[in-house]
Amino acid sequence: MTADLFDDLPPSCEAAQTLLAPGAVLLHGFARADDAALLQAINAVIARAPLRHMRTPGGYTTSVAMSNCGPLGWVSDPDGYRYAALDPLSGQPWPAMPACCLDLAQRAAAQAGFAQFRPDACLINEYAPGAKLSLHQDRDEKDFSAPIVSLSLGLPAVFLFGTPRRSERPQRYRLSHGDVVVWGGPARLAYHGVAPLADGEHALLGRRRINLTFRRANA
Ligand code: MD3
Ligand code: FE
């Protein structure tokens, strides 16, 4: 059992938040109270749209297993990256975004100053020990004025957060179970990635980390 800094806060107290960089707000433990409901909703999504390792245009396969919910889903294959309305595995629309997930994303965005956030895509990333995400920008969306909201569940990860210039060395942050980050404004096009996941055992999720990113893909 890990001691948690925020277990002692009275229920009426707002959870702590940290400005990581201009436009990047970390809401510590924002989703912890809802973790079981969120996991149940995610499990229902991935029962219909299974997590899968995607092919990349460069000829690799992602070490992270991915799926999506919502009107659009982010997909990668040898032809490139794009948002698609149909799951290429099933030919069916992606499962709807669960209400508890959408609600969480909108509450977090509002807390960070984006009261009008209406995500139309939610990418689900599952990390087993050793899985990683190389430094990249998220720029397949049409309108960069909308933020991206990320939700971390399960094992903690070392998140690499750079700048809009790939050459600048990224800062490292730990993202823990229940943390939510809103990436908007000047942080929206920052390079970012995830270091190889360290092995461990999480009480609710077991030997893995799940990250959801809520996005506005179409303008
Ligand atoms: C900063 N996912 O799916 S979440 C991704 O933990 C992705 O699975 C990581 O990067 C993960 O594209 C990181 C944090 C995150 C997400 C999107 C961002 C940070 C971001 C977009 C712009 C800047
Ligand atoms: Fe990303």
What's this, in brief?
With 219 residues, the protein is mainly β. It has a single domain (18-215), classed as Jelly Rolls.
Task: Please provide a written account of the structure.
The structure is a single chain. The protein is 12% helix and 34% strand. With 219 residues, it is mainly beta. The protein has one domain: Alpha-ketoglutarate-dependent dioxygenase AlkB-like (Jelly Rolls). Strands 1-2-12-9-14-7-4-3 form an 8-stranded antiparallel β-sheet, with helices on one face. The chain is globular and about 40 Å long. It starts with 16 loop residues before the first strand and ends with a strand. 36% of the residues are buried. The N terminus is likely disordered. Fe (iii) ion binds next to loops. The site of N-(carboxycarbonyl)-S-(naphthalen-2-ylmethyl)-L-cysteine has 16 residues, from strand 7, strand 9, strand 12, strand 13 and strand 14.
Highest CATH level, the class? Mainly Beta
The major pleated sheet works out as: 8 strands, antiparallel
Question: Which assembly state applies to the chains in this document?
Answer: single chain
CATH architecture: Sandwich
Number of domains: 1
**Order of helices and strands, N to C?**
EEHEEEEHEEEEEEEE
**Helix amount, in percent?**
10-25%
Unique bound compounds: N-(carboxycarbonyl)-S-(naphthalen-2-ylmethyl)-L-cysteine, fe (iii) ion
Q: Which parts are unreliable, with pLDDT below 50 for 5 consecutive residues or more?
A: 1-13
Number of strand elements = 14
Number of helices: 2
CATH superfamily heading: Alpha-ketoglutarate-dependent dioxygenase AlkB-like
Distance between the termini: 44 Å
At the fold tier of CATH, the topology name is: Jelly Rolls
Global shape: globular
Residues in β-strands, percent: 25-35%
Determine the structural class based on helices, strands and strand pairing.
mainly beta
Supply Rg.
16 Å
Question: What's the arrangement of strands in the largest beta sheet?
Answer: 1-2-12-9-14-7-4-3
